[in-house]
What we know:
Layout: E1 2-11, E2 14-21, E3 30-34, H1 41-53, E4 78-85, E5 88-95, E6 98-101, E7 108-111, E8 114-120, E9 126-131, H2 135-146, H3 150-156, E10 158-159, H4 166-169, H5 172-183, H6 186-219, H7 225-284, H8 287-304, H9 307-354, H10 358-429, H11 433-501, H12 531-576, H13 584-655, H14 664-732, H15 739-745, H16 749-779, H17 788-850, H18 860-883, E11 888-892, E12 907-911, E13 916-919, H19 925-945, E14 954-958, H20 966-981, E15 985-989, H21 993-998, E16 1002-1006, E17 1013-1017
Parallel strand pairs: 3-15, 3-16, 10-14, 14-15
Antiparallel strand pairs: 1-2, 1-4, 4-5, 5-8, 6-7, 8-9, 11-12, 12-13, 16-17
Helix pairs in contact: 5-18, 6-17, 7-16, 7-17, 8-16, 9-14, 10-13, 10-14, 11-12, 11-13, 18-19
Amino acid sequence: xxxxxxxxxxxxxxxxxxxxxxxxxxxxxxxxxxxxxxxxxxxxxxxxxxxxxxxxxxxxxxxxxxxxxxxxxxxxxxxxxxxxxxxxxxxxxxxxxxxxxxxxxxxxxxxxxxxxxxxxxxxxxxxxxxxxxxxxxxxxxxxxxxxxxxxxxxxxxxxxxxxxxxxxxxxxxxxxxxxxxxxxxxxxxxxxxxxxxxxxxxxxxxxxxxxxxxxxxxxxxxxxxxxxxxxxxxxxxxxxxxxxxxxxxxxxxxxxxxxxxxxxxxxxxxxxxxxxxxxxxxxxxxxxxxxxxxxxxxxxxxxxxxxxxxxxxxxxxxxxxxxxxxxxxxxxxxxxxxxxxxxxxxxxxxxxxxxxxxxxxxxxxxxxxxxxxxxxxxxxxxxxxxxxxxxxxxxxxxxxxxxxxxxxxxxxxxxxxxxxxxxxxxxxxxxxxxxxxxxxxxxxxxxxxxxxxxxxxxxxxxxxxxxxxxxxxxxxxxxxxxxxxxxxxxxxxxxxxxxxxxxxxxxxxxxxxxxxxxxxxxxxxxxxxxxxxxxxxxxxxxxxxxxxxxxxxxxxxxxxxxxxxxxxxxxxxxxxxxxxxxxxxxxxxxxxxxxxxxxxxxxxxxxxxxxxxxxxxxxxxxxxxxxxxxxxxxxxxxxxxxxxxxxxxxxxxxxxxxxxxxxxxxxxxxxxxxxxxxxxxxxxxxxxxxxxxxxxxxxxxxxxxxxxxxxxxxxxxxxxxxxxxxxxxxxxxxxxxxxxxxxxxxxxxxxxxxxxxxxxxxxxxxxxxxxxxxxxxxxxxxxxxxxxxxxxxxxxxxxxxxxxxxxxxxxxxxxxxxxxxxxxxxxxxxxxxxxxxxxxxxxxxxxxxxxxxxxxxxxxxxxxxxxxxxxxxxxxxxxxxxxxxxxxxxxxxxxxxxxxxxxxxxxxxxxxxxxxxxxxxxxxxxxxxxxxxxxxxxxxxxxxxxxxxxxxxxxxxxxxxxxxxxxxxxxxxxxxxxxxxxxxxxxxxxxxxxxxxxxxxxxxxxxxxxxxxxxxxxxxx
Length: 1021
């Protein structure tokens, strides 16, 4: 960061506006900021630090305390700094919180703190507003740009007065923060965090596995893995014995079930035998019906011998009837066919006459085809012409519409420009409305507070008057109570004297005065006061006294409140000025008018934005339409040429057609009718020829069929007579008395098959039943029915015993399996834990080393920074040796810090006079300044040498040179000269006269009663 221009207004001791042009000091200058004590030399550094961070260099004063007391009330305290950072130029402006005069009226108002940040052009003009007003946004953005916070900036780029030893004496952790920012070594810190996170994750996983192992044992209700091994060893033989008992019970159950199953099978055999005997008895009840069916089947067999003769006779009769019917049908068909043949001959003659007109019709058809083809061409040309005209008209309309729209856009743009001019004028007039509204609202709030104070003052005055009346009343009550109490006490004493007088005796001493004579003893009155009445009177007096004190406190409080109210009223009246006497309604009306103005300002700004957007949109539309117009004009010309060309072709073709042939619809209709007529004539001729040929052929065929039918009738009649003679002969030789008896004995195939099936089924079932009964009788001849109930009970007992043994074996075997599974899980868990522990040995060791938990407790980042610090110390020691005449060198402390304190970046000074190293805190004031200066210069050299580091191209040193002797001062100046020749700006604040003589380029700070001022001397223009 290199400052270019610094402007201070009403800041520190500068009452007016003072500007320091650092560019006038030359390129990378070495200059002196000189002036008397208290003139404001350090305030220049305060202004630079305040502009960048909103804090002063020493951070001893708040920004609100930096206002110059000699500054005019209307002049705001503010600081503006132009600076160059890498390849960019920026301007930052800051205004601290302060009191300023009100815009209208008397009194002051609070000016809030604000900050702006701009990016500048190479010419120094504002280019981009990075931060508009918010202080926190400016702080964060500048922190990111510079790379240092305020404290780090003060330690490495500004050595403030009394603060130059901070970096020299800083602890490791503070120096680590500064160096990590300067050298951008956060990557190593992220590596540390990544290693620490990974190691912690593995460590948590190891602990989780340990808990998992404990959970596995707890799930098996085991205390330890030893208990697991013991229980497994004990259970293994028990499981074997339980399995043997189960196998024995299982064999016993199987024997019992086998005996029961055998008995049940024997029982089923006895039951099956009895069932078969009953079935045979029921089956023999069908014997008579089966005998009748067998007789019917025998008669049907006898009738089957006559069936061929009967069938032949029926077939001969049916054949004769069919032949006779076909003969009658053929006669009728022949009559109808002869009529059809005559009709076909007449149609053939008519079609042959129409064939002579076909040549004329075909010629007419050819001419019409030519006319239609030309008509189609004419119609196509007409369609294309209409399309071309439409395209021409459309393109021409679009062109005219675009031209009209372009003219409309021009008019709208002119109207928007006028509106924008009016709105901008109105916006400028309303620019101060928000500030005025804020001020008037503050005035209104103060005026409302004033009215409230006035009302409360009247109430307090009324309350004070009432309290005074109560106070006077309480005083009277107290006086009255005091007199009454005194009177009661006196009367009590008198009563006591009277009572005492009653006890007096002559020649006896008075208990009060000791006299022996009693000339006037007290007389007892009727209303003697008791001690209780006296105490009640005194209590009433005390109560009145408390009431009086309460009233006095009330009056005092009201008096204080009235006084405070008057002071507040006077303060608000002074702040309000003339508004204090004006009606509150006028102030409210003014606020309302200002609110309307603010709303109007917002509306105007919104309208300006809208109008600007509309104008931009119109500009874009203008450009688009202009391009469209340039593209549309050739299109319109081309469409016009195409339409005229098609119109010429249409006229030429239209002239080549006769007048009566120009209607394509009528031509096409006439051609269709002619096509239909020619086709009809041709089809009628072909149909007539086909019909005549077909009719004659059909007639000959029918005549042949009639002759064949007559021959079949004669042949079938002879066959019928022969069949009748054979039937009569066969019936006479059969066992049947008549044809009716023959018909009754016949059975159809279904009846015959059903009867035969019933007889066969009956006989087959009877044989099956008899065979089965014989088999059962042979099997059960020497056996008796078994006892099923006893065998069933024996089987159930064996099953219960087997189930009990099975449950016992399963319980033991399940427990053993569970324990074996737990053992396997434990083995897997131990293997996983061993793997995690192996990983932790790697990651944990890396994490501990990288995070500085072993050895010298130096973290990875601190180790890297230690190497960088060594480079810094080499450069710093080179300068310190020169300034200390070869006595001192800065070294890094190698011994670890005590306790748990992190180390690695502590500094010591090597004293060549003693040959020992000691803490830098033991250096004297001048020696500390030399060491701090050497460290700052060495740090600047090393940071500049590392790519990616923060640029430390500026260094300000505030005082400290007065503690150096002449030789050390010369060495320091020589080193600073070398540094500034290397391209860095060096500013020194000092009142040492030797520096003024050696440094011609100076910023002189002058002090006066009206505020300080600055002047650049020895500048290079």
